[in-house]
Write a structure and sequence with these properties.
This protein is mostly helical. 69% of the residues lie in helices and 0% in strands. The chain has helices spanning 3-6, 14-26, 42-79. This is Alkanesulfonate monooxygenase.
């Protein structure tokens, strides 16, 4: 796929990929489509889910929860 339509490939260790995914989420990206060089063998999907996606969801989920609580607090202050 051309880089201009899909962007550059994200390649790296699980730790490097976690950092890249978090950075993209912080930029406002909320959907990423992934492709695997080995046609998504079950072991690859398992490692990706366990070592990349699950930790990223924890970081992003915590940030979103904090943001929602902050938004609610600000709204409550405005209505008082």
């Amino acid at each position: 796929m051309p880089a201009r339509s899909w962007g550059p490939p994200l390649v790296g260790t699980p730790e490097e990929l976690r950092e890249m995914f978090v950075a993209e989420a912080e930029r406002g990206v909320d959907l990423m489509i992934v492709r695997f060089h080995d046609r998504a063998e079950p072991d690859t999907i398992d490692v990706f889910g366990r070592e990349v996606i699950a930790p990223v969801e924890e970081v992003i989920g915590s940030a979103r929860t904090d943001q929602r609580h902050g938004d609610r607090t600000n709204t409550e202050k405005e209505t008082q």
